[in-house]
Task: inverse folding
């Protein structure tokens, strides 16, 4: 092969021609189900030449930048067994892009070299993307007791399928090292999922690879549908997904016997309103105090640097509100218009913001400074439910770190917990998060919190909130979640799927 396989005659011969046409056909075939739409995804096969050992055969790869449903044999690249380009396609007239080798080439070579593959398919099928997101942070996709498992090499109906999951990168060639590690760590695997991206599938021939790729897509699609129905695809009985039952085991023993030790609970993140503190305290005490004292506060501190910063933030927010036609927004005159005029307009805007219960940083910062004065003058005292102090102390003594995440500013959070009827509870808290890290109903915010906490897996964090939408966002980030159903809290939807509590004693005693 070394002497004849790279000759011009061989490259133009029937074996290479057949492989080129096969790749073009497979690209057109897998375009239909959406695996290789636009220019995404890629397919490669080894040239079928029985006279040459599989490891030494030439490799044909689909290019980058070519519409997959329009590919022809002449569009393909041909490589030597060690990855050297032997033949590249000729440029086509505009609007076609110049020929470019796929960024998947180094990844394909790993499958060829480490697994002795005869073909590799890289799919961007939507089911491969969504399936990798069902358990945020998971390093594996698992499934068992499905008939189509029989089509995966080395698997039967009762076997457990394990597909490693690697994290996506901006460029596909940057996946090479993590793909290599996954291939080495999972010797039975014939596929690797790339989170939020797709899947790589290989086999000892193009037929084996195609069969397995179709089966993987079927199984991943089935997992997504089972997830939507609340059915557990990872267990033989395929019973209902019961996250609440699993969470009880984790909280009761520190770790689940069925889960990796890395999932041991390490942090608790608490909401305030309806979770640690009655909603009525916030709505009937804190908000009215800020509303009733905003003018007094601005008048007495107008020329302080802190209040100047508060006014600067408010001006920016109000200008944005005016552009967007926000109800209640009124223009703020320039500083040279006089202190009274500026304060009058600010008070009008702030009162409208408080009435609308807007969760915006400029308002929360000003409220925090007003409340600080109230706490310092003993005009306000922080209120928490009676079970909160003991729970905080218990978690603290168990080396479980406790954090607060509230729409109120971090200063306001410290003031509340530092001035309660039970004394200063701040020694039992490790930190505070507010909306500067993100909206509480957005999953991205909880990803950011997990990064800040430095946990190995988001499932090591328990989030307790009374707001269903916040619970969903945290769950989608991989957090364990409990919903607080304290008296006075808003009702949650039926069949919400979360564990609920009315007291922190239920968490400590679960």
Result:
């Amino acid at each position: 092969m070394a002497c004849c396989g790279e000759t011009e005659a061989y490259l133009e011969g029937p074996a290479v021609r057949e492989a080129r046409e096969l790749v073009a056909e497979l690209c057109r075939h897998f375009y239909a189900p959406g695996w290789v739409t636009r220019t995404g995804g890629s397919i490669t096969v080894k040239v079928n030449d029985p006279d040459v050992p599989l490891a030494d055969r030439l490799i044909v790869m689909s290019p980058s930048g070519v519409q997959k449903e329009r590919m022809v044999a002449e569009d393909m690249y041909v490589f030597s067994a060690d990855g050297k380009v032997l033949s590249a396609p000729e440029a086509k007239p505009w609007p076609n892009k110049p020929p470019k080798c796929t960024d998947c080439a180094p990844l394909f070579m790993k499958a060829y070299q480490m697994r002795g593959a005869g073909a590799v398919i890289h799919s961007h099928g939507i089911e491969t993307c969504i399936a990798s997101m069902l358990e945020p942070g998971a390093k594996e996709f698992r499934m068992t007791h499905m008939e189509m498992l029989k089509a995966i090499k080395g698997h039967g109906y009762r076997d457990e399928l394990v597909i490693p999951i690697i994290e996506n990168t901006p460029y596909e060639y940057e996946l090479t090292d993590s793909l290599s590690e996954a291939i080495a760590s999972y010797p039975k695997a014939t596929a690797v999922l790339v989170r939020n991206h797709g899947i790589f599938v290989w086999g000892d021939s193009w037929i084996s690879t195609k069969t397995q790729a179709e089966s993987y897509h079927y199984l991943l699609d089935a997992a997504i549908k089972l997830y939507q129905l609340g059915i557990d695809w990872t267990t033989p009985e395929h019973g209902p997904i019961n996250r609440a039952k699993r969470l009880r085991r984790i909280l009761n023993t520190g770790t689940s016997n069925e889960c990796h030790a890395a999932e041991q609970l390490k942090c608790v993140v608490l909401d305030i309103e309806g979770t640690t503190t009655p909603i009525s305290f916030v709505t009937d005490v804190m908000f009215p105090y800020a509303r009733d004292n905003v003018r007094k506060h601005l008048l007495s501190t107008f020329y302080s640097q802190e209040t100047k910063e508060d006014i600067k933030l408010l001006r920016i927010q109000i200008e944005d509100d005016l552009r967007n036609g926000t109800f209640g927004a009124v223009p703020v005159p320039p500083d040279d218009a006089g202190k009274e005029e500026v304060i009058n307009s600010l008070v009008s805007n702030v009162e409208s913001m408080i009435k609308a219960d807007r969760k915006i940083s400029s308002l929360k910062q000003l409220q925090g400074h007003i409340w600080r004065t109230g706490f310092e003058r003993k005009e306000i005292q922080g209120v928490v439910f009676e079970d909160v102090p003991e729970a905080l102390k218990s978690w603290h003594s168990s080396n479980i770190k406790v954090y607060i995440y509230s729409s109120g500013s971090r200063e306001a959070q410290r003031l509340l917990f530092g001035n309660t009827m039970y004394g200063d509870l701040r020694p039992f808290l490790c930190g505070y998060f507010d909306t500067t890290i993100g909206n509480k109903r957005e999953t991205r915010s909880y990803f950011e919190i997990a990064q800040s906490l430095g946990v190995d897996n988001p499932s090591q964090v328990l989030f307790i909130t009374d707001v269903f939408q916040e619970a969903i966002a945290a769950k989608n980030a991989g957090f364990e979640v409990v919903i607080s159903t304290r008296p006075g809290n808003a009702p949650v939807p039926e069949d919400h799927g979360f564990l609920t509590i009315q007291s922190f004693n239920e968490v400590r005693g679960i």
Observations:
- The chain is about 40% helix and 15% strand.
- The first helix runs from residue 8 to 11.
- Residues 318 and 328 are 10 Å apart (CA to CA).
